[in-house]
Amino acid sequence: MRFRFLFLFVLFISCSSQLTTFNQAETYTSKGFAYIYNNNDFEKKIIKGRMNNEIMQISHQNLKTGTLIKISNPKNKESLVLKNVKRIRYPDFYKILITKPVAEKLNLNLQLPIIEIIEIKKNKSFVAKKAKIYNEEKKISSKAPVDTVKISNISKNKIKNSPKKKENIYILVGTFFSIDTAVFLKKRIIKDVPDLDSQKLKIKKINNKETQVISGPYTSVNLVKNDYIKLKSFGFEELDIFTNE
């Protein structure tokens, strides 16, 4: 999770509406909702690019084309690694755009498609000595070192939509060493974002070195999306989302 600060985060910089390329020394990681691609959203221009919904493809709008990304389902620990096929604009609330076969492979809950993503750096090996690559993947032009990465076969399993118990959703606003810093940030948000429900802002002590500011719980995607947008407007560049933790 990242956000920009001016004078130790006292003054926040507003977010840009343009695509931003992450070009950082640190490995990019994030946790939140995946946007599952469908052609109707492309036709309605909600998504600014087309994908092939018959094969496994992913798009991250801020990582370079060809970047290797590990996508994980935190609920069942299923994961896979795919290349960023192209940079497609999608709503900022979502962390990544994926096709239906990716959702099937990860066995995502369509109502709450929570995922974790991590950028695989070019100078790091990831899984296996010998890679297995799809014919579909071979057609994708990229200089990424796919010979160091194992990419799983498309699963024939269907996405399970069986009823599941409701889960509480939270926004991770920030993690700090000092509890005083966390308290300061909470007060600043309450003051500068008056339409945000202050009762949802909480300070959670993880251990002696970590204190978190979180917002929640939320019981639906739409509810968490509303506050996520408010916090982004306040100046946060990246916010993680998690459930029942």
Can you tell me about this structure?
- The chain is of the alpha+beta class and 245 residues long.
- The chain is 18% helix and 24% strand.
- The protein contains five helices and ten strands, in the order βαββββαβαβαββαβ.
- The protein has helices at residues 39-43, 100-106, 135-138, 179-192, 221-234; strands at residues 29-36, 58-59, 68-72, 79-83, 96-98, 114-120, 169-176, 201-207, 210-218, 240-243.
- The strands form two sheets. A six-stranded mixed beta sheet has the order 2-5-1-6-3-4. Strands 8-9-7-10 form a four-stranded antiparallel beta sheet, covered by helices on one side.
- Strand 3 and strand 4 (79-83) form a beta hairpin.
- The two termini are 16 Å apart.
Indicate the low-confidence ranges by residue numbers: 1-17, 124-157
| Mass-distribution shape | globular
Rg calc: 19 Å
Q: DSSP strand (E) fraction? A: 15-25%
Please state the structural category: alpha+beta
CATH superfamily of the largest domain: RlpA-like domain
CATH topology grouping of the largest domain: Barwin-like endoglucanases
- State the name of the first-level CATH class of the largest domain: Mainly Beta
Helix content: 10-25%
Largest sheet: 6 strands, mixed
Spatial ordering of strands, largest sheet: 2-5-1-6-3-4
- CATH architecture heading of the largest domain: Beta Barrel
How many runs of DSSP E, i.e. beta strands?
Answer: 10
The number of helical segments is: 5
* Helix and strand pattern: EHEEEEHEHEHEEHE
List the domain count as a whole number.
2
First-last Cα distance: 16 Å
Averaging pLDDT over every residue, what do you get? 79
